[in-house]
Amino acid sequence: LNVQTAPVAPYTSSIVYAFPEHLQLPYTLQWNVSGQQAFGTAQVLTVSYVGANGRRLQGTQSLSVTALNPNFGTIEYFDSSITSSYNALQVQFQRSVAKGLGVLAAYTWSHSLDFGSNYSALPLTRGNSDFDLRNNFSAGVSWELPTVRAAKLGSAFLNGWGVDARFTARSAFPVTLRGAYLTDASTGSS
Questions:
Q1: What would the pLDDT profile of 100-146 be if each residue is shown by its tens digit?
Q2: What mean pLDDT value characterizes the chain?
Q3: CA 182 – CA 139 distance, rounded (Å)
Q4: Are 71 and 11 in contact (CB under 8 A)?
Q5: What distance in Å separates the CA atoms of residue 121 and residue 83, rounded to the nearest whole number?
Q6: Interval 31-79: pLDDT, tens
Q7: CA dihedral defined by 125, 131, 136, 138, rounded to 10 degrees?
Q8: Contact at 8 Å (CB) between 112 and 84?
Q9: In angstroms, rounded to a whole number, what is the distance separating the alpha carbons of residues 86 and 167?
């Protein structure tokens, strides 16, 4: 009796991980410049530019090769040539209204770009980061409560207090529109 069985590869329907031959550590370059102007003795306006660029960032890409060869599943490969950038204009106004009472208002316009921060199965495309927040406004009031004259123990508990109020408004994070997940049978890309 002659029985023939087809060999089964040990890698069937599994994930294969691939790394670049010369994998390097990522790094970030950061810079900022600020200007500050006082208006009288109680008001200060600060304008700043802040920037950062990420280089050699690591990202994972998925490629299904089952359509090309049913003995293989998915290849997860790590790309270390991804970049990112962040740029922001920041404006801050600070004023001392009265003794113990201060006001602070700040606005930031920023833009963050990178390659495919949202989903590894999609091709690497430079665009808005998942955490890109364009407009951010915040304001606050701080009041140092008056000092209370009391005995040493009472003074330790009653003095040095303050009350703060804060307001924040910002634009929304980007919305990622997704459709059906398809695999191109001729190339195996998703």
A1: 899 999 999 999 998 866 565 566 778 888 888 999 999 999 999 88
A2: 84
A3: 47
A4: yes
A5: 18
A6: 999 999 999 989 999 999 999 999 998 888 888 887 887 777 788 888 8
A7: -170
A8: yes
A9: 25
